[in-house]
Design a protein that fits this description.
The protein is an alpha+beta fold. Helices cover 24% and strands 45% of the residues.
Length: 143
């Protein structure tokens, strides 16, 4: 099974299910899902530049939260959008660390169709679970 994501029904926010065969792939899909909310035509984003960052968390849920929040912060402050990702997740005291390289470009209204404004990532309904051969993440975006 390969990774992917889907937007699930929710009354007022955006509920996302992202999944992959491993943790890194699931995290990549989570970022892709967030970007797909921010711009409607994610396929139009060229990998013209790269942005590197690291985040850490005491749990995988906290790591996911900080990871998605960092992408939201970069979009809000630098107006960068991304279409591909390289993620390395490892153990760090006392929890986990993600080293991220994201490829994308500056948001351009003539090229990228604006999507929905995301106010924040939330812990509400956040869940990371492992099934037979899949890591599944559920998270809620406050719009």
């Amino acid at each position: 099974m390969t990774g992917g994501f889907e937007y699930l029904d929710h009354t007022s926010d955006v509920l996302v299910r992202a999944y992959g065969t491993g943790l890194e792939e699931a995290f990549e899909q989570a970022a892709r899902a967030l970007m797909g909310i921010l711009i409607q035509n994610l396929q139009s984003v060229s990998p013209a530049l790269r942005k590197c960052f690291s985040v850490s968390g005491n749990s995988l849920e906290e790591l996911l939260y900080k990871y998605l929040e960092e992408f939201l912060y970069i979009f809000d402050t630098e107006r960068l959008v991304f279409s591909s990702f390289e993620i390395k997740i490892g153990n760090a005291e006392p929890g986990f660390k993600a080293d991220v390289i994201a490829y994308g470009e500056k948001f351009n209204q003539l090229k990228h169709r604006p999507g929905i404004e995301v106010k924040a990532v939330t812990y509400h309904m956040m869940n990371i679970s492992q099934h037979e051969d899949t890591i599944e993440m559920l998270f809620l975006l406050d719009i």
